[in-house]
Amino acid sequence: MPEASALLGTWQMVSWRKKVLATGEVADAMGSDPIGYIAYHADGRMMALVLKRDRPPLMGLAPTDEEKIRLFDTMLAYSATYTLEGDKVVHHVDAAWNPAWAGADLNRPFKLDGDNLIISGAPSKDPATGEDVIYRIEFIKVR
User: Fold this and answer.
1) Distance between CA 117 and CA 14 in Å, rounded?
2) Whether the Cβ atoms of residue 128 and residue 101 lie closer than 8 Å to each other
3) Residue 15 CA neighbour count, 13 Å, CB half
4) Pairing state of beta strands 45-51 and 75-85?
5) What pLDDT is attached to residue 1?
6) DSSP strand E in the chain: where?
């Protein structure tokens, strides 16, 4: 069973793949080269931010309503407290880019291998499509 201290720090996303359970299709969840970070703090809090790398540029200084929709659909951000339950970290979400996630418990089976963190295995709902999926997210420890 991993120690909580092994998760502490900031982790940079290397890849984020999803498998659609209904079809078996595997694809990148936020493009082939997402920008993403997850940070676990000693006070029991965590934060996650993921952006699709090729987000569309704005036509002006402030986004239009249509641009806001595209921007919302090309990101994910939330904060939470977390607890460890064996080989699973549970994120107890208290604030999120998508209000439907506030108050949710996100179960994240994980594996640590040196400076690599892999979160994988729990069925989830894709926030963009609503499909039942299984994610595999790989991170490397920021030094």
Assistant:
1) 10
2) no
3) 11
4) antiparallel
5) 60
6) 9-20, 26-28, 35-40, 45-51, 75-85, 88-96, 105-113, 116-125, 132-141
Q: In a structure prediction context, what are the per-residue pLDDT tens digits for the chain, which is 143 residues long?
A: 667 789 999 999 999 999 999 999 999 999 999 999 999 999 999 999 999 999 988 999 999 999 999 999 999 999 999 999 999 999 999 999 999 889 999 999 999 999 999 999 888 888 778 899 999 999 999 99
CB atoms < 10 A from the CB of 78, how many? 21
User: How many other C-beta atoms can be found within 10 angstroms of the C-beta atom of residue 63?
Assistant: 15
Distance CA 14, CA 98 (A): 23
∠ Cα 55 59 65 (to 5°): 80
Q: What values do phi and psi take at 49, rounded to 5?
A: -140, 130
Q: How far apart are CA 132 and CA 14, in angstroms?
A: 23
* Residue that the structure tokens 């921007």 belong to: 71
93 class by beta-carbon count within 10 Å (0-12 exposed, 13-18 middle, 19+ buried): buried
